[in-house]
Design a protein that fits this description.
The chain is α/β, with parallel strands linked by helices and 273 residues long. The chain is 41% helix and 13% strand. Helix 1 runs antiparallel to helix 2. 45% of the residues are buried.
Length: 273
């Protein structure tokens, strides 16, 4: 399938694009038709298809797919913004990943997208006081996708988690809107202290592969953290930080690095953060 789709602007638009792709793929690959019908084509909207897709992934002997689908549906009915966030996450994958051919590919196969959607349901359960079920979903996500996000962590919309293997996000972490991160990113603490101990990531931030952001620090809007860096102090908005420990290498305002996915790093300046 060639990359000809346009980015759409609503959950309804994403759903229409997803169905169109599924119908075309079912004709092209008859062996996938039954799966595509079950996951997408027999449903009435994005919420129903998403709950089915997540349930078939996370269901197991202890908590069956039927039970998992019930609490996904409950979450979406109680808070429709969860589905809208999923639509924006799907758009983010299409906008920022040059390897993706459409929305269907990410919806079916991308563990960064899928793990994030399981987290959104787990976060809702956590807020309802259903902490053990939320922690169960965290555990299943770690087992299935090698992504470990504490259900209390707060994550905005339009978030792109590319490749995703090894991503760890701690309990008190906050991730803003339109953030992009690659595999092996850690948003962690610096010790065994309790309380507010994890990073706060601003809007539009790009976190390169293997970046470690540790402690209750702030990464400002539209900052860039270079691959493999270890960040232990605040990074101002629009700045690039690189190295171990990280140093500021540029503070010229970047044009939304999370959207451009530009991982290049300019010459290092003579000061540390």
């Amino acid at each position: 399938m060639s990359r000809k789709l346009e980015v759409v602007s609503s959950a309804g638009g994403v759903w229409h694009a997803l169905r169109t792709e599924a119908e075309a793929t079912a004709r092209q690959e008859p062996a996938l038709a039954s799966m595509l019908n079950g996951v997408i084509l027999r449903h009435e909207g994005l919420a129903q298809a998403l709950s089915f897709q997540l349930a078939r992934k996370i269901g197991e002997e202890g908590v069956t797919a039927l039970t998992a689908r019930e609490f996904c549906d409950e979450a979406y009915a109680a808070d429709p913004s969860i589905v809208q966030a999923a639509a924006l996450d799907l758009q983010a994958v299409f906008e920022r990943d040059p390897a993706v051919r459409g929305y269907l590919q990410a919806f079916l196969f991308y563990k960064g997208f899928l793990s994030l959607q399981v987290h959104r349901v787990a976060h809702w359960l956590w807020g309802q006081g259903r902490e053990m079920m939320a922690l169960h979903l965290q555990s299943r996500t770690s087992e299935l996708f090698q992504v470990d996000i504490h259900p209390a962590a707060r994550i905005g919309s339009g978030v792109f988690v590319d490749h995703a293997t090894g991503v760890v996000i701690g309990e008190t972490a906050v991730v803003g809107d339109n953030v992009s991160m690659l595999h092996a990113v850690t948003l962690g603490g610096t010790g065994a202290q309790r309380g507010d101990r994890h990073p706060k990531i601003g809007d539009g931030v790009l976190l390169g592969a293997g970046a470690k952001v540790l402690g209750n620090i702030r990464i400002g809007d539209y900052a860039k953290i270079a691959s493999g860096s270890v960040v232990l102090k605040d990074v101002p908005p629009g700045c690039t930080a690189a190295g171990v420990p990280a140093r500021l290498v540029n503070c010229a305002k970047a044009e939304e690095p999370a959207r451009t996915m530009d991982h290049t790093v300019p010459d290092i300046l003579d000061f540390v953060i």
